[in-house]
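Quick one, T. Sequence first:
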Amino acid sequence: MSYYYRYQSILNMKENEKNQILSDYEKSVEDFEKVAQKLYECLKKKEDLEKAKLEGLEKGLAVQEMRHYQQFVTNLERTIDHYQKLVMLTRNKMNEKESLLKNKNIELKKYEKMKENDYKKYKQEERNNEIKELDQISIMAYSYRGN
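Structure tokens:
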């Protein structure tokens, strides 16, 4: 007699759900990394621009060029603000997915533990049945020898 776990289909379904959520989580991490990278690039660009502006001021920068730098910095700050908001949103989304993944992992572990306990119970019953059969065989052998 082979072992059959009666809740195997539920366990399979829970594993599929966990895998789907894991995939969603990995995508959210990837999205977060992309947005964070864009924010970093903008901040780096602003830093480089500020450094170039200071060097230009030391060398004597024309008023028109100063306006150009200031306009570019203003636009860059708007872009940075936008990316900071996106980073916060994607981080929150990623954290939600992570929390959901943790919950699914816990739920799946419970089902796996139930299966493990059920299998142990099955093995114990199988051992008990073998012992009963051996007892019956030995009783039968003793009764045949005794007669």
